[in-house]
Amino acid sequence: MSVLEMKVPSPGESISEVEIATWLVEDGDYVEKDQAIAEVDSDKATLELPAEASGTITLKAEEGDAVAVGAVVCLIDTSAAKPAGQVDSPAVVEAPKAAEVAPSPNPAPAAKETKAAPKAGSYAAGHPSISAKKAMDENGIKANQIDGTGKDGRITKQDVVAAMAAGFSANDTAGWGGTRDTELKKMSMLRRKVAERLVAVKNETAMLTTFNEIDMKPIMDLRKKYKALFADHHEVNLGFMSFFTKAVTEALNIYPAVNAQISGKEMIMHNYADIGIAVSSPKGLMVPVVRNAEQMTLAEIEKEIKRLAIRARDGKISPDEMTGGTFTITNGGVFGSMLSTPIINPPQSAILGMHNIVERAVVVDGEIVVRPIMYLALSYDHRIIDGKESVSFLVKVKEMLENPERMIFGGKDPIQVLLGL
After folding, report:
1. Is 382 an active-site residue?
2. How far apart are CA 40 and CA 7, in angstroms?
3. Is 233 a catalytic residue?
4. Is residue 24 situated within a structural domain?
5. Catalytic member of 34, 221, 314, 386
6. What percent of the chain has pLDDT over 70?
7. 15-43: per-residue pLDDT in tens?
8. What is the pLDDT of residues 346-397, one digit of tens each?
9. Residue 91 domain flag
10. Residue 90, in any domain of the structure
11. Considering its fold, how many domains does the chain have in total?
12. Same structural domain for residues 160 and 276?
């Protein structure tokens, strides 16, 4: 028998251990080379662990275990033959919708099945597998409505299908259950690290927030006029984020302290702008970085943001793609936020918060008009950025967004550039 020891690879230079988030295979399964067998959490990202060879797998770590980089997590018997009938890429069988599954009028009693009891305190108990969770989300089913029959009590896709076939009572599916039960849910390593960093920022920085408002009509008019042409020419949609990123890079060039960071008794000044863009993912909020955004066109910014957002959504983003940013932009407006005070993403010194766009009555040229207004918030570290710089930076961002042509001329008025002023 030839056995391969699979060890935890290093996800990044500063990462010494990872946590087994989810096993995608069962103990004793036959796996193919390069097949994803587990999802592992580091303090920076969630990564897939591919099989290094084909064979029968033996798991050596439980879900929720913290495993050192280089430690053995499973064994693969490479001499094992593929089970008869198993194909390389099994087709995914869609779970039937709840409305399509009708319980039998006289269901036969289920045969009793002997199985090992879940391990006490096992992280797997009551947790669905990837395919099971997808079926549960599609049909609005909660984990406490299903008894898991998988390893250590894990809920499998077959458990979900069987539960839907048996039907649910009205009391099982109607909102709050009317009980006073509680349940423990373990925080992922990524979430624990985020919590530590947020508390550290509040304790270690002199954080202050300044606010302003933007009339979004010029940007919205420009997008409406050129959106279709832009999409046809560049094969990517024209969104608001590229305008904000471009305006931020121009303002950072004028106020470099906002793009700097503290290192001991010194300031690190960056001659480039690596802009972190906060995006929502199934694992929570992640901040991939757009490198050298100051040199990009609007189309290049849009393409890079789209690429990084897709990788974050699919759980394929790497730690390197989320480190090294010099400034961050976060958009709470997509969730309906009117105003907030974003927390600095260390070791950066500032973060810009975008919010929802609401039609408000404003005064323009002495007359009251209705305009689409967005509130902006800039949180900054007062140890390195003075109030004058922070306010001036936000005013410069506002000026360029309300006059989009200024982004083309480095924040200057086009007429002044023409006249050489």
Report:
1. yes
2. 12
3. no
4. yes
5. 386
6. 82
7. 788 888 888 888 888 999 988 888 888 77
8. 899 999 999 999 999 999 999 999 999 999 999 999 999 999 999 999 999 9
9. no
10. no
11. 3
12. no
